[in-house]
Design goal:
The protein has about 180 residues and is an all-alpha fold. About 30% of the residues are buried. It contains five helices and no strands. α1 packs parallel to α3. It has one domain: Ferritin.
């Protein structure tokens, strides 16, 4: 395992190709993650979590721009087909059975929070991998600051998830069909 230094050695040709694929894949998924964050905010703007989700959605959009700049700096452009596929998968995920056919379901909040946690965790791992591959300020980005922002996003979304679970699964009172 290589230790992180301020000036990482340039990757070999094979490593460069793999890094480019990795960046394209993460960029494709970043588009889907940003769409999910916008949707979670839009559906929860009038809840106690509206402002926090708005900040998370803005941060995720900014992270996506940072990743795009890193891709360009490392000449890892391309990947539009992957991005379209990831956005299509995000939209298909909305069709899941969640107990409500035409309305927003409290279960949707739980799924959105879990999807955001997964995406943010993957993005955090991307920033850490890039730190190892190109150094902490490789490609002109402050990767340490991006890791910290991902940690903040995870903490916020974990709180939203706890609230969403409580909202979705709290007992609604006595079951009127239950025998007394």
């Amino acid at each position: 395992m290589r230790t992180t230094s301020s000036a990482a050695a340039p990757p070999t040709s094979d490593a460069t190709q793999l890094l480019h694929i990795y960046l394209r894949d993460h960029w494709a998924l970043a588009g889907a993650g940003a769409a999910l964050a916008r949707r979670a905010h839009r559906h929860n703007r009038d809840t106690p979590w509206g402002h926090q989700l708005e900040r998370v959605a803005r941060d995720i959009a900014d992270d996506q721009e940072q990743l795009d700049a890193i891709r360009h700096a490392l000449a890892a452009d391309g990947g539009q087909a992957r991005r379209v596929a990831a956005l299509g998968a995000e939209r298909l995920a909305r069709l899941k059975l969640n107990g409500r056919l035409l309305r927003y379901s409290p279960l949707s909040r739980v799924y959105e929070a879990e999807g955001l946690c997964s995406g943010i965790t993957a993005k955090r791992q991307l920033w850490l991998a890039l730190t190892e591959a190109v150094g902490p300020s490789g490609a002109g980005a402050d990767l340490g600051a991006l890791v910290e922002r991902a940690d903040d996003q995870l903490a916020t979304v974990a709180g939203f998830h706890r609230w969403a679970v409580t909202e979705a699964f709290q007992p609604a009172g006595p079951d009127p069909h239950e025998a007394r």
